[in-house]
């Protein structure tokens, strides 16, 4: 029976006295990770999802993206995919394996660490099945003040992607807030028209 992913507080009752939530340990890729359910609803959701599926977090997020894309294929002729930060990496991994299942009109990577990951060898330059036939336009939005983001076009020379500088903020924290930036929103709106 599959467990619900709804948030529920976990606490222990001993002799009718309710004790505070306890710290639980999980193993992720062989490393122990401590979760304290009272700290974050996301952690609790993650714990329940781990218990329900036995998958690691990466697999769960990739499945969620694939599920969303599968639904979009059924409802729309074209898809505009917008991703931010680590989400650009997860989207890249999903599209690398299965972009040929979708018709992506525009893919926005914003605040992407892909260039840094390529430089340190954490991601290959191989695009898998990402091609202009299934990802018609790839726009990478970055702010040079954002310590996470870079232009990524040079890292994937076999694919014509567009690196677009946007002035998001004046410090490293505010410079990563792409979805509250007028220029970013205008580009997304234009893609959806």
Radius of gyration: 20 Å
Instruction: Give the overall form.
Output: globular
State the oligomer. Answer: single chain
Largest beta-sheet characterization:
4 strands, parallel
- Please list the strands of the largest sheet in the order they lie side by side: 5-6-7-8
Structural class: alpha/beta
Mean residue pLDDT: 79
Give the CATH H-level superfamily of the largest domain: Alpha/Beta hydrolase fold, catalytic domain
Number of strands: 8
- Relative helix content: 25-40%
- By DSSP (H or I, 4+ residues per run), the number of helices equals 5
Strand content: 15-25%
CATH class of the largest domain: Alpha Beta
Cα-to-Cα separation, first versus last residue:
43 Å
Structural domains: how many? 2
Secondary-structure element order, as H and E? EEEEHHEHEHEEH
Low-confidence stretches: 1-46
Query: What is the CATH architecture term of the largest domain?
Result: 3-Layer(aba) Sandwich
CATH topology of the largest domain: Rossmann fold
Could you characterize what this model shows?
The protein has helices at residues 41-53, 57-75, 86-98, 114-119, 182-192; strands at residues 13-14, 17-18, 24-28, 31-35, 79-84, 104-110, 138-142, 162-165. By secondary structure, it is α/β, with parallel strands linked by helices. It has a four-stranded parallel beta sheet. A two-stranded antiparallel sheet has the order 1-2. The chain has a two-stranded antiparallel sheet with strand order 3-4. It is globular and about 40 Å long. The termini are far apart. Mean pLDDT is 79; it is low at 1-46.
